[in-house]
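Exam revision sheet. Question 4 asks you to relate a sequence to its structure. Input first:
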Amino acid sequence: MDEKLSFFKDGLRLDGRLPDELRPIKVEVGVLARADGSCYMEMGENKVIAAVYGPREVHPRHLQEVTRAIVRYRYNMASFSVEERKRPGPDRRSYEVSKVSREALEPVILTSYFPRSVVDVFVEVLQADAGTRTAGINAASVALADAGIPMRSLISSCAAGKVDGEIVLDPMKLEDNFGEADVPIAMNPSGEITLLQMDGRLSKEELQRALELAKAGCQQIYEIQRKVLIDRYSHMDDMGSCDEVVAEEEI
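Answer key, structure tokens:
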């Protein structure tokens, strides 16, 4: 990296944000007519879409669970989502992100209500700019609610990172690529963490600060998720239609 490039200028980051500031967030609910639930989300330059199908019959049937529904989560990055064209199809990273994302959402889904069935979650990254797994989890959580899947709560996800020795919230691409650490988390509104990963090295104090920042970010994202869902269904009740509702926030 060019040594002359600094990540901070006059206390602001390269994109003009404060260290504890989220990127702009935009959410649209019910964007896919053929899915049971769907959500399009932008977190900064990230653009992801989530679709939920189910509960529905499991195929092949030997995968059925007698006492509960199974949850399947498929994360995929489109070939055109990155600057250098990505090879189409799943890879090791997409399998890993799919697994941890499913485990982040599954604790709040009331799977015992639908034995012998499956809930399928598909997340497609249309444009990537660091933090795609957190954006995907946020979109998937809203899509699950839009599909009417019984849940204990929504799940919100955000990351904190270390850049030039400073802990920052919601790292963008340059900060993620050239930073010293990255800590993505997911949690419910009560603060119970369902996903915690760390790439890089942090001291105990730095990790504590990163978790505090990421939790605060998750709480802000939860309020946006909650608002867009309330607006959508109150609008449908008032208007008797299924018009799309958009929530856009500049954090």
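Marking note for examiners. Residues 81 and 126 are 5 Å apart (CA to CA).
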